[in-house]
Amino acid sequence: MNARSGIRAWLELVRIPNLLTVPGDPLAGYLLAGGGLTRDGASGIAVIMVVAVCLYAAGLIFNDVADVGEDCRSRPSRPIPGGRIRRSTAGWAGTLLMVLAVLAAGRISPDTGWVALVLAGLVLLYDFGSRRIPLIGFINMGMCRGASVMLGAACAGGTWLTPAPMLAAGTMVVYVAGVTVLASTETRSHRPSWLRWVPLGALLVWLAGIPVALPQASPLAAVLALVMVWNTLRAVQPLGAAVEGGRVAVSIGQLVRGLLLVQATWCAAVGGRGLVAAGVLTALWCVAGWLGRRFYSS
Fold it and tell me: Would you say 248 and 185 are in contact if contact means Cβ atoms under 8 Å apart?
């Protein structure tokens, strides 16, 4: 296998379009918790964003390490069952990423260190246990992304357990849990039709909670909110009870990449310092869409 094929195999293993959706979690949490973009604050949240990416990548690697038996049967082209990456090599890579991420978070502050440790525990619990348990596994996955938001809030320091980041984290838990439920039906011929509306419902609840959690929300967030709702509706609307797995995979990719719009809306709601972040995240959504046509997302 040449170097180019090897790089592509690793990009497939970490599902590169999904990886782009991760830095926005802690960034949004940081801004919603009142974090400023001073030199010290910016350097701290930059490290935490890398920490979140490393923990997410480790989780995706461990997911394929733990799932190699099923992948050999239903997804033999994946990097590990396809022989492009050795299972042991992937396991060591995931372990290294996770350990370095937790240590780096601990260097920022005790709060970020503890939240990163909790997040790492949630990742391991999902990959090697809870995902095989109905409902609990879906909630566990949602909690991983919710903890990623709170990782950024912890980086803001001070009283970071405030309503705005906590509401965003709760929304993330329900949204991602709903997407995970839908993803679990990819290889099934039927699924309850109401499941497709869970991610959209979570976003609508968050929008209803904005006046309480963020009374001074920027009106520009309303524009992004409309795009966010439109993208989610476009993704879930086709997912009826008997849609084939290929269509499900496409919708899951759209929903996962749509997290960038969710994060952009949160950042825009902060106004001022959050508007540039919202613009960058929206641009990343376009990039992720392009990558999603070339790499597996579900």
Answer: yes
> Could you state, in order of their start, the residue ranges of all structural domains in the chain?
3-292
Residue carrying structure tokens 């950024």: 152
Highest-confidence segment of 11-15, 43-47, 286-290, 294-298: 43-47
Secondary structure (3-state) at 96: helix
Cα distance between residue 30 and residue 112, in whole Å:
11
pLDDT confidence band for 166 (50 / 70 / 90):
very high
Q: CB atoms < 10 A from the CB of 210, how many? A: 18
Tens digits of per-residue pLDDT, 218-255?
778 888 889 888 988 888 887 765 566 567 778 888 89
* CATH architecture label of 3-292: Orthogonal Bundle (1.10)
263, 27 contact by CB (below 8 A):
yes
This model's pTM is above 0.85: yes
Residue 246, SS3 per DSSP: helix
Beta strands in 68-152 (DSSP E): none
Tokens of 218: 């920027």
Give the distance between the most distant pair of CA atoms in the chain: 56
